Amino acid sequence: MSDAAVDQGRRTWIAITCGAGAVGGAAVAVPFVSTFAPSERARAAGAPVEVDISKLAPGDRMTVEWRGKPVWILRRTPEQIEQLKSLDGQLADPNSERTAYPIPEYAKNTGRSIKPEFLVVIGICTHLGCSPGGVAKGSGNASVPADWPGGFLCPCHGSTFDLAGRVYKNKPAPDNLEVPPHMYLSDTVLLIGEDKKA
Ligand code: FES
After folding, report:
1. How many domains does the chain have?
2. Ligand 1 centroid – CA 108 distance (Å)
3. What does the pLDDT average to over 113-117?
4. Mutate to test the pocket of ligand 1, among 122, 127, 152, 153 (most ligand atoms within 8 A of CB)
5. 128 CA closest ligand 1 atom index
6. How many angstroms separate the Cα of 43 from the Cα of each of 27, 30, 192?
7. Is pLDDT of 9 > 80?
8. Where is the Rieske domain (predicted)?
9. Ligand 1 site residues, Cβ closer than 6 angstroms
């Protein structure tokens, strides 16, 4: 993950559309769509958010808003996926067994994800709610070890997380980053906030 990619992830708030607002092709459907499309208030209250991930390059991260929270979508490289397997001994809860932030069953694996390539987590530190930032492998950042494989650092009290959002041992943050309910509508479209079809 490059610094540029990290910056892009922090800065870029992707335009979002509500999942229930998708417009069908038939003109007759329009009045119904406008009738039932969720209002801004409904969206703020937690309507699912549809996200196009087709332009997310390997190693890059994007941020979308769901329920007023930043949700990160990271596209991991094959090297980053492989590295996750060697970190268990350094992590506080490598298998996501703690229950403060219950993880969906489909994300209870090493990468904490449906597809190994894509991580979907809420970018809020589980200690006191600060916003961690990305720290790339080889960045030379003095707040992480020299052999840092890439991950996230919370600037408030120094908690560190790997590229699956798993917190390292002996850090103030008590839990891994939260995985929101989500599902794939297609290979390139994610739905955040819902994990089963109505
Ligand atoms: S809020 Fe993140 S370490 Fe304290």
Report:
1. 1
2. 24
3. 98
4. 127
5. 1
6. 25, 20, 12
7. no
8. 89-191
9. 125, 127-130, 154, 156-159, 172-173
Cα–ligand 1 centroid distance for 37 (angstroms): 37
Per-residue pLDDT tens for 177-193? Answer: 999 999 999 999 999 99
Q: What is the pLDDT of residue 42?
A: 59
pLDDT band for 46, please (50, 70, 90 cuts): confident
Kindly give the number of the ligand 1 atom that is closest to the alpha carbon of 154: 2
Residue 190: inside a domain: no
Q: What is the CATH number of the domain that holds 119?
A: 2.102.10.10
Q: Which two tokens stand for residue 120?
A: 């979907």
- Catalytically annotated residues: 157
Cα(128) to ligand 1 centroid in Å equals: 5
Q: Considering the domain boundaries, does residue 91 fall inside one? A: yes
